[in-house]
Design goal:
Layout lengths: L3 H32 L8 H27 L14 H6 L7 H7 L1
Helix pairs in contact: 1-2
Length: 105
């Protein structure tokens, strides 16, 4: 039997998965547009930076989706403590709790 808290948590994860999937699709479409040759050499540097940022975003989103599928979402990859929901709502692809993230830099 599921408790109301568990079902609320599952709904939140399901909603998050839907949002991340939509974001992934949008970023994939953006990457497709960015990689189309514009023919303007003056925009090459800017376009290259946008492509790199979009690829990083896709990697972060797919990582979050993978952690959700594996049941590891919301757990710090360094200390295994739960990542506060507030942090995940602001940064859905967060892999570390704040103290561990600060140690990364």
């Amino acid at each position: 039997m599921t408790t109301p808290t568990q079902s609320s948590e599952q709904k939140w994860l399901d909603d998050l998965r839907t949002t991340l999937t939509t974001d992934f699709e949008a970023q994939t479409a953006r990457l497709t547009q960015l990689t189309a040759d514009t023919g303007d050499p003056g925009e090459a540097h800017t376009q290259s930076a946008l492509i790199a940022a979009t690829r990083r975003s896709l990697e972060q989103i797919s990582g979050a989706l993978r952690r959700i599928a594996e049941g590891r979402y919301g757990t710090c990859e360094r200390c295994t403590a739960p990542i506060p929901r507030e942090r995940l709502e602001v940064l859905p692809h967060a892999r570390f709790c704040v103290p561990c993230q600060q140690k990364q830099h």
